[in-house]
Amino acid sequence: MTDAHTITVPASGVEAFRVNAGQTFRITDPEGGQVGDLFAYAAGDLTEWLSASHTRAVVSRLFPKPGEQFFTTRRRPVLTLRHDGSPGRHDMLIAACDAARYADLGRPGHPSCAENLLTGLARCGIYSHTVPQPVNVFMDVQPGADGDLTWTPAATGPGDFVVFEAAIDCVVVLSACPQDIAPVNRGGPTPLVVTSRDTAIRRNAPVFDRAC
Amino acid sequence: MTDAHTITVPASGVEAFRVNAGQTFRITDPEGGQVGDLFAYAAGDLTEWLSASHTRAVVSRLFPKPGEQFFTTRRRPVLTLRHDGSPGRHDMLIAACDAARYADLGRPGHPSCAENLLTGLARCGIYSHTVPQPVNVFMDVQPGADGDLTWTPAATGPGDFVVFEAAIDCVVVLSACPQDIAPVNRGGPTPLVVTSRDTAIRRNAPVFDRAC
Hints:
Chain A is mainly β. The first copy, chain A, has one domain. Chain A has helices spanning about 50-60, 100-105, 115-125, and strands spanning about 5-10, 15-20, 25-30, 35-40, 70, 75-85, 135, 140-145, 150, 160-165, 170-175, 190-195, 200-205. In chain A, strands 1-12-3-10-6-5 form a six-stranded antiparallel beta sheet. Chain A has a five-stranded antiparallel beta sheet with strand order 7-4-11-2-13, with helices on one face. A two-stranded antiparallel ribbon of chain A has the order 8-9. In chain A, strand 8 and strand 9 (about 150) form a beta hairpin. The longest helix of chain A has 11 residues, at about 115-125. The radius of gyration of chain A is 16 Å and the shape is globular. The interface between A and B is medium-sized, with 32 and 32 residues.
């Protein structure tokens, strides 16, 4: 299902879209148990992106609470976490899966969120060699008191969702994490759905398109 | 004091140096209470750097324990934490201080670890527009069970130190954090000292120098 207000990110795949300041978008996990790696770039300056380490520095939390914001490499708000209709487990500690990860797992060439990011950016006319640390929605990685991290498969049930609002015009890339070896997704990779009630979603909108 | 085996990083300043695989270096906080922002790049490919998010993914900890390693954006070991002669509080959650941070604090143009990094790299012939998340030695930021972060001024006493061993040939940049507004350093910015017993330290070694 893909219309002007809905984008389906296929299992293990990626979609990129433009959102303008004030626009909200919902990410739904229709089947449950699926992690999404979310990246966001300032539309006017693609060396400015959503940064996990800057976000932690500003909000003084491992992950923003609903109502709090994510910040860029220039410490500007880029997204607000407006509503959380999920068990509330999201990760901002772990790098995107990538070629090196799957080679280590004995599966060289396996699809990855890093590859997906660069694919999504390329569709918008952005050619990058940098993979920022993503916001891993629905991914459950919890630190213990000793600093050890415990990884648990995504706890989302069918239809769970999270809503973001753009604080600035930005390009968002969402990868439906293709991890099917380590226990990140529950029950194998499945799709994610992005919806926007208020404004049409400009899928693959070229970053150089002044009409955006 | 700067000889072939010692580099003093001046208060609020930076030094960059080459270390080869197997070489160890010690970072000492001579006066105590001083944070160092540490960056490391693979000597052969400067798009490969020590990555906090990849390190957490590999070691499944918020920060490596002594004997554990830091990993690059390509998931290769780059440094090993050989010995910790400090209270053992180090941070790998928080971005380097930067121009935006000091502007927010009402001090535009204040020296920053981000500026220091690019200065250090430039001395080695590397011109970059990306500031990776650093390893903040001696910086005390602890997450609580609810995900809130508690910031405490560096707990190091005079002479406390930490020892790293290079796993690959790399360029290391160490910024003596100039933060004198927020309570990160205790008692104002002071120097840090880098020493290497086994091999001379090649300060500002050009990355294009094949003799390294």
